Amino acid sequence: MRKASAVLFNRAHGYDAAKNTRRRGRRPDTAVRAEHYALDSNDRQRVIATLLDYRRNNPVVASICRLRETDVVGPGLIPQAQSGNEELDFILEEKWKVFSRDPEVTRTMTMRELQQQLASMPLIFGDGGLLLTSTGRVQLVEGDRIGTEDENTNSIIRRSTSTESEDEGRRSRIINGIEVNRVNRPIAYFVGTREDGNLQDVRRIRASNFIFIKKRIRPTQIRGVPELATVADDLQDLDELDSIEILSSKVAASLSAIVKREGAMDFELAARADDDEDNRLETFEPGSFQYLEPGEDVSVISSSGRPNTDIIDYSIYRLRKIGAAIGIPVEFLLMTIGKVSFSAAQGMILLYQQTVESEQRDLMPTLSRLWRWKVANWIADGEITYDENFEDPFDVRWQPPSFRWVNRAAQVKADQAYLNMGAISLDDVSATFGTDAETVLERKAKNITTAKRLAEEYDIADWRDLMNPISTTLQGNIVDVMDMDRS
User: Fold this and answer.
1) Listed residue (55, 67, 25) closest to 232, CA to CA
2) How many Å apart are CA 221 and CA 229, to the nearest integer?
3) Cα–Cα distances in Å, from 342 out to 127, 332, 337?
4) Can you give the pLDDT at residue 468?
5) 3-state percent breakdown (helix, strand, coil) of the chain, nearest 5
């Protein structure tokens, strides 16, 4: 009875996940540590260097980064000002278009390319940011450039200077290149340059002049963790497995042979003394006959069963694990979506769409802060004036590219129904094609103006005859319809 009570007590108190058994092996028996201890500066650089090598040489990682950049950003996330004044909105959006031509300090990136870098940066570097410079442009900072010159130092205690606000606290810590106060709010970032693998010329950048980007997995997390770090071993296993299969296939496709001879030691000594290579059988020529010496025998080295067809299914299974960790189906990684049924393809697209939309939402706060910074600069330079009681030039909405369907006909019908219901706007529909509602309406207006001019020039009774006829239907009272036609 006492033994049964003890069993019930153990089952009711505690988790099996904390128990070590012979079947489960020994689980790590350590204290819970913060992420900046689990991934310190040295390990961070090692992980980033490994993933950068994969980015250069591993086709799977190249596919992951390409999908993140092209599908999340597409033609670009377009801002829609919501200041409350249409004229002011137009001015702000036009100024943003000019800024988007070369927003980065090197003037080699467009806004779309900048957004692509921001979208894919967490995959390899885990974090990074935008340095807001006094020139009115931004500088893209990768995560490996954030840190102290003494990268072995993980946490430093320092006292605040008299120039810092009281809100920053009397004491602050530097954790992996980020200075935080007592509640882990970032105060400053230490940014340098990488030369021969070493971080140098480190500068302290106040948090108000830096837009930090990271993927959070814990509330108290200071630095971001590279998203591909969890699948780095799987990527390496697949790469090694692929190399082994290629080597085995090459061996199987070639003819290798060895010559065995009785008294091999005496034969080798005699061969060395004679050193007559013409008498030694070392190569085979096509269509030739070779005569062996007495006591010699030829054995062929073969690798049967190559290439191994079973390894394809196993590799796809490992790729599914990798894709599940980052939210990308394996069919998108390998571009094999056409090999599944239509309904299965739609299901995969819907799953992948959730990932894309989530990444877009993660990117919007960064772009909104960039928008507010740029608008503040325009106001400070006197380029923008507004009535703060009725207008808010800092309010903005971001229009992401829409996700295209597999069935285009069904998409058009659904868009038309949602548009009539007011569930979506013309901007949402236009975003599918990489444009906005204003551009679409301007094109339509220009086409109508051109059609009227050509109809008059060529003596055509109705300019509508030049437009492509579209069949339309109307439901209503016949009298009302006739009145609408006369008006």
Assistant:
1) 55
2) 16
3) 38, 15, 9
4) 63
5) 50, 15, 35
Separation in Å, CA 88 to CA 5, 127, 379, 391, 442: 75, 35, 12, 9, 19
**15: helix, strand or coil:** coil
SS (H, E, C) 338-387: HHCCHHHHHHHHHHHHHHHHHHHHHHHHHHHHHHHHHHHHHHHCCCCCCC
**Residue 85 pLDDT greater than 50, yes or no:** yes
- For residue 468, give both structure tokens: 């492509």
CA-based nearest residue to 352, from 328, 386, 388: 328
Retrieve residue 277's tokens: 């290579």
Please tell me which residue, 220 or 282, carries the higher pLDDT value.
220
DSSP string, 41-87: HHHHHHHHHHHHHHHHH-HHHHHHHHHHHHHHHTT-PEEEE-SS-HH
Q: Give the span between the Cα atoms of 269 and 29, in whole angstroms.
A: 61
How many CB atoms within 10 Å of residue 179?
A: 23
Closest CA to 141 of 97, 94, 220, 201: 201
Using DSSP's 3-state secondary structure scheme, residue 12 falls into: helix
Place of tokens 């009711």: 12
How far is it, in rounded angstroms, from Cα 378 to Cα 380?
Answer: 5
CB 115 within 8 A of CB 371: no
Span 179-218, pLDDT tens digits: 999 888 999 999 999 888 788 899 999 999 999 999 888 8
pTM over 0.85: no
Residue range 263-284: mean pLDDT, rounded: 55
In a 13 Å sphere around the CA of 180, the CA atoms on its Cβ side amount to 16
What amino acid occupies position 305?
G
For 246-264, what is each residue's pLDDT tens digit? Answer: 877 777 776 666 666 666 5
Which residues lie across from 179 on neighbouring strands?
174, 188
Q: Are 396 and 238 in contact (CB under 8 A)?
A: no
Owner of token pair 């249409």: 86
Least confident window among 41-45, 226-230, 441-445: 441-445
Residue 76 CB contacts under 8 Å (≥ 6 apart), including other chains: 100, 111, 112, 115, 401, 434
Residue 159 Cα distances to 38, 162, 203, angstroms: 26, 10, 18
Distance CA(382)–CA(116), nearest Å, equals 31
